[in-house]
Write a structure and sequence with these properties.
single chain, alpha+beta, Aminopeptidase, four-stranded antiparallel beta sheet, three-stranded antiparallel beta sheet, globular
């Protein structure tokens, strides 16, 4: 069993294309949209970054930070997005490690609080997130839960 590594995309920019394809395969958001956000992060145009968990050179978990994760509360920014862990790697604390890494990284850059939208209850609270309000997702019939991390 190899040791999992937690990195920002800036630490391994050569993974950009692979990461964009990976996120696209999980969420169906066009690969180009991920590439655009990742390029802007790698060029230093934004501090809203991309975070990965690697098992050797295989991406097994990841998430990004964007201005708004497709909801109506444009005032609540930035948002953690595209949170995903491969099924056979779940329940090992990977998402929690990445969430903590993102929050700490953003705090060091003076970016706090941070938000995310989710349908999960009970998961994010374990990592210091608090339910903040309900938000309307773009093109979604149901309201979704919006969390804050201060």
């Amino acid at each position: 069993m190899s040791e999992l590594k937690y990195i920002t995309l800036r630490e391994k920019p050569e993974l950009m294309d692979k990461a964009a394809s990976w996120f696209n395969s999980k969420w169906g958001v066009p690969k180009e949209a991920y590439l655009e956000c990742m390029e802007s992060y790698l060029k230093g145009d934004t501090e809203l970054g991309w975070y990965l968990c690697l098992d050797d050179d295989k991406i097994v978990g990841g998430m990004g930070v964007i201005e708004n994760d497709f909801h109506d509360r444009k005032d609540l920014t930035p948002n953690i997005c595209a949170v995903y862990t491969e099924e056979n790697y779940r329940k090992q604390g990977i998402a929690g490690m990445l969430l903590n890494m993102v929050v700490e990284d953003l705090k060091l850059k003076g970016i706090s609080p941070v938000y995310l939208v989710t349908d999960h209850t009970g998961f994010y609270e374990r990592y210091g997130w608090e339910f903040y309000c309900m938000a309307q997702g773009d093109g979604e019939p149901e309201m979704t839960r919006l969390y804050i991390h201060k």
